[in-house]
Write a structure and sequence with these properties.
Blueprint lengths: L1 H6 L16 H4 L1 H22 L2
Length: 52
């Protein structure tokens, strides 16, 4: 089911969080932070590039 759902998401918005559990923000905060910062940077850059 997860792979089926992943096919509906644009590839640039989908990333498997390797070696993370169901609650990565509490089980592995530093590992989760790497993924979170990466997507937040993409969001910030998209607003910066679009002049918003």
């Amino acid at each position: 089911m997860g792979n089926d759902l992943a096919q509906l998401i644009h590839p640039e918005h989908f990333e498997v969080m390797e070696e993370m559990g169901h609650f990565p923000m509490s089980e592995n905060p530093e590992g989760f932070k790497r993924y979170l910062v990466k997507i937040l940077d993409k969001i910030i850059n998209s607003y910066t590039q679009n002049g918003s």
